[in-house]
Design a protein that fits this description.
Elements (H helix, E strand, L loop, with lengths): L12 H8 L2 H13 L2 E2 L9 H14 L2 E6 L2 E6 L1 H7 L3 H8 L5
Antiparallel strand pairs: 1-3, 2-3
Helix pairs in contact: 1-3
Length: about 100
């Protein structure tokens, strides 16, 4: 299965900011930033499986995360280096200033 994951040069500031603007997606990004790669289903987000899938897809298609498929599992990691290369300081600024929600 081929998942759409934009190249670093294709990352769009508006799309990235929209992806980071949702509290659930920001929670996912914080968790990946703190703990590294994770299996999608292993994160406790308090939302339905379909809503969880939507949030992970939005982050992946915006270029915020990278998804690696291994069997039936999807391993997700933060594309920190790519985001830093394209938009220096953006991710740190968002993570430092956005409120932390439950």
């Amino acid at each position: 299965m081929d998942l759409h994951q934009p190249d670093t040069s294709e990352l769009d500031l508006t799309t990235v900011l929209q992806a980071l603007g949702d509290p659930v997606r920001l929670k996912i990004v914080r968790a990946l930033d703190a703990g590294g790669e994770a299996v999608c289903g292993s994160m406790e987000l308090g939302i339905s499986k379909s809503t969880r899938s939507h949030h992970f897809k939005t982050l992946r298609e915006a270029g915020v995360t990278f998804t690696r498929i291994e069997g039936t599992h999807r391993h997700v990691s933060l594309r920190r280096d790519d985001l830093e290369a394209r938009f220096p300081g953006l991710l740190d600024a968002v993570l430092q200033t956005a409120p932390v929600l439950g």
